[in-house]
Amino acid sequence: xxxxxxxxxxxxxxxxxxxxxxxxxxxxxxxxxxxxxxxxxxxxxxxxxxxxxxxxxxxxxxxxxxxxxxxxxxxxxxxxxxxxxxxxxxxxxxxxxxxxxxxxxxxxxxxxxxxxxxxxxxxxxxxxxxxxxxxx
Length: 136
Prior knowledge:
This protein is α+β, with helices and mostly antiparallel strands. The protein is 35% helix and 32% strand. The chain contains 5 helices and 7 strands, in the order αβααββββαββα. The chain has helices at 3-6, 26-34, 39-54, 93-98, 121-132; strands at residues 14-17, 57-61, 64-69, 75-80, 84-90, 100-107, 112-119. Strands 1-2-3-4 form a 4-stranded antiparallel β-sheet. It has a 3-stranded antiparallel β-sheet with strand order 5-6-7. A hairpin with a 4-residue loop joins strand 6 and strand 7. The protein starts with a helix and ends with a helix.
């Protein structure tokens, strides 16, 4: 069971889980391709990168946005939807070409939650805004 599902409060349900784009796995693939002669170290580094990426969760519930990372330890960033002020997208040239980017959710005060390497950031932005600002 994922962290997001485990941490649901009463009346809260998962609206969306935002997957990492395949481009975020590029460093792992490069470790394997570029360092084949030292296969032992390469497999360790590639394995670590694989597990690290598998342990990232980015999601949206009907009450909050959640970002969780960590293999053994756990680090989370969460923001209640009532506190969301802006949802911004940042995409570089490669992000525009391949369809990935960064979504930054800014709340009241100085808090923010950032989803990095997310696939289809425009759809993510639309989902967050539609749940945080429902049309009456």
